[in-house]
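Q: Joint fold for the lines below.
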Amino acid sequence: MNFYLPIAEISINIYILISLGVGIGFISGLFGIGGGFISSPLLILVGIPPAVAVGTTTVQVFASTSTGVVSHFQRKNIDYQMGLTMVIGGLVGTLFGVLILNNLKNIGLIDNYLNSIYIILLIITAVFILYETAKVNIVHKNKKFKLHQHSWIHGLPFKIKYRKSKLYISVLAPLLIGFFIGVLTGLTGIGGGFILIPCMIYFLGMKTISVIGTSLFNITIVSFVSLFLQIYINQNIDFVLALGLIVSSSIGAALAARIVDILDQENLKVTFGMLLLIISSFLAYDLFRTPENLFIINYV
Amino acid sequence: MYKYILIIIFFFKIGFASNFSLDQFEIEINSNFLGKEVVLFGNKDKDSDVIFIFEGENKKAKLTTKVKEGFLWINETKELNNQPSFFAIFTSPKKTLNEIFLYSSLKDRHLLISNHSLELHKIRKAMKVKNLYIEEELESLSGNLFLKKFLIPDNISPGNIKVYMYEIKNNEIIKMVSKNLQIKKGGISFKLEKLLKTESFIYIIILIAISLLLSLVTNLIFRKK
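A: Joint structure:
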């Protein structure tokens, strides 16, 4: 059964959309991620125009993270000072990202660049996850090791105290991290939690307890602003697709929550890493294979 | 069957002069729209040929050509002004594009078949992939009646499709009749698109509110007890 997506201007099979949403939600719930970096490339793979896939994913990211923020707010797990610093960087970054997306759309290179960015992001994340899992399980199995070490980031100027996280670091570090994630949010629609969380732990040295709440806080505000920018600059958010994705991914996430406790966490991480490599190889294959159609026309 | 009855009625109504009609002159794009089958039917003089051209409204478009650079396929994009959003050619008897190119007045009127250029060939191919370009023969029925069923695809742009019938005798166009087929958005699709284009702020606020509500409701329904 197909139905028409008014902004994407194509019809999509309802079962494909539901399976996609449930699958994305299930993966998100299982691995504790927002799912934006999986949903954008998957939507593109099923034929949604890249610009619409990016815009619509932003809505899904906003909806899924905002409910998480509320629960972390109630548990007082958010470092607002750190979060707001990253939000400032993030907002500037998002504006850059949305403008770059608009430019890529106008010059017709959107699918080349978006695919390449997704491939790089997915491979880096997969390698990082697999490396960390291997390090913990093989190299450091019986050793205690420091979660973070002092790096060049701690030598940056304009240091301030972040009381909640008990850190005395340069304001430039969270600003730059926020900016980088913001560019990715505007450009690809992803929330960026899978990059933000390791950055906050390993680069800034934040405590794990406030990392997730603060990252959700940052992603929710940045994706909220990104929604407005996408609508005003790119007009690329499909209402029907967004609502379908939100409902089905929430169901998938809830299903995952019921089984996540009985699964081995280390095996889950390895599976997740492998899954990312599989998705990225599909996207890479798309860049290298001879296209079915050499000529494509899109009406403005 | 009803379409054949329509043809018979049509035949008696107009007599023997070449003419045509469609089973519908207005198509609405709504949330159930999966494309629409249109029936073209009519009659022609037994000694003449007919060429039908369906030409959608001209729009701005971008033509992307995949080019191999090294191991990668990259896009080369060209902006096009005034490209028809839909184009169909139906002929009786079957005529190739090369044969159609012989009729200069027809070439002059329709940009997409105005010459043999590579660029127009690329555009026609790109439109064909999206089912926006059709080149087929009319189905001949008994006597001088003809019929053609074809699909207006789900990715059609709203607007007016001009339908031209050219009657040809001794390699000369002796008659031209034109009618309009309206494609318009309706129902929720139209309202959403209009809202997005004219009231973006309201569109996004409604979307945010419904997203949050749906997210909360589904979390409540499906959350682990």
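Q: Anything notable?
A: Helices of chain B lie at 2-14, 97-100, 104-109, 118-129, 187-198, 200-222. The CA atoms of residues 85 and 170 of chain B lie 32 Å apart.
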